[in-house]
Specification:
Elements: H1 19-22, E1 27-31, H2 39-46, E2 52-59, E3 66-74, H3 78-84, E4 89-91, E5 94-100, H4 104-123, H5 129-139
Antiparallel strand pairs: 1-3, 1-5, 2-3, 4-5
C-alpha cells in the first residue's frame, strides 16, 4: 500500500501564511555554541553562505546568559542546503552542531505518521484508501 500521498496536513485553520511560516524552510538550529558567541558573530559566520534575515541566540530568562544554541534564518531556503553541505562548521574555535530547524508540531506529526505506517506494515493491515484517509483526517483535525 503506497502511503506517500498521505502526509500530515497543516493545521492552520484560516490557511493564511505568516512571515514566520515562510521562513521555516530557511531556518537552521545551531547548537553547542561557545559562551562568547553572539548574534553578530553568528551573522558574520553564516553570511558567507547567503543573506541572513535574522539571528536569535537563545538566552536564560532569569540571567540573560546564552543557553548555547541559536536559530539563524536565511532569505533563501537554498542557503540552508549550502550550509548543510559544508559541515562541520566552526564558530569561535568550536565545532558546532548545525541542523535544519523543525517546528515542534512538525516533529510530533512526523513521529505519529511514521508510527502508523510501521504498524500497518508490521501487522499487514488491509484498509481501503478511504478508511485510511478518514483515520488520518480525524487525527490531524
Amino acid at each position: 500500500m503506497d502511503l506517500s500521498a498521505y502526509q500530515p496536513r497543516n493545521n492552520n485553520q484560516n490557511n493564511t501564511t505568516t512571515p514566520q511560516n515562510n521562513h521555516d524552510t530557511a531556518k537552521i538550529f545551531v547548537g553547542g555554541l561557545s559562551w562568547q558567541s553572539n548574534e553578530e558573530t553568528l551573522r558574520y559566520h553564516f553570511e558567507q553562505f547567503g543573506e541572513v534575515v535574522s539571528v536569535e541566540v537563545m538566552r536564560d530568562r532569569n540571567t540573560g546568559n546564552p543557553r548555547g544554541f541559536a536559530f539563524v534564518v536565511f532569505k533563501d531556503d537554498a542557503t540552508v542546503d549550502l550550509v548543510m553541505s559544508n559541515l562541520p562548521q566552526e564558530i569561535n574555535h568550536k565545532i558546532v552542531d548545525v541542523k535544519r530547524a523543525q517546528a515542534k508540531g512538525e516533529r510530533e506529526r512526523d513521529v505519529v505518521f511514521n508510527t502508523i505506517i510501521f504498524i500497518f506494515h508490521f501487522f499487514n493491515f488491509v484498509l481501503t484508501l478511504k478508511q485510511l484517509n478518514n483515520m488520518l483526517h480525524n487525527y490531524y483535525q
